Prior knowledge:
It contains five helices and five strands, in the order βαβαβαβαβα. It is an alpha/beta fold. Strand 4 (about 75-80), helix 4 and strand 5 (about 100) form a beta-alpha-beta unit. It starts with a strand and ends with a helix.
Amino acid sequence: xxxxxxxxxxxxxxxxxxxxxxxxxxxxxxxxxxxxxxxxxxxxxxxxxxxxxxxxxxxxxxxxxxxxxxxxxxxxxxxxxxxxxxxxxxxxxxxxxxxxxxxxxxxxxxxxxxxxx
Length: 117
């Protein structure tokens, strides 16, 4: 069973993604901030990170950059409700494997996770 870590500062989004991913057979760990994820990173044993870009505190893009600079390789799917070309390019430049604009179809998320080796 693959473990997916989800970082989003919206409690409803966290709850919805937890239900969706659990229903598709994933183990899910949710975090309300990038800082909370960093504190629990080693213990959560995530194989994929679903990461909101616009978080209170450290942004999703900055969190991704921190993970890479510390040598932590983890496939990251970025998601945002505030979509524009600059943000999209920053997300891909930071190393995300997929980019989803909220609200997104659950199939798009499950397909993006399925493409991760």
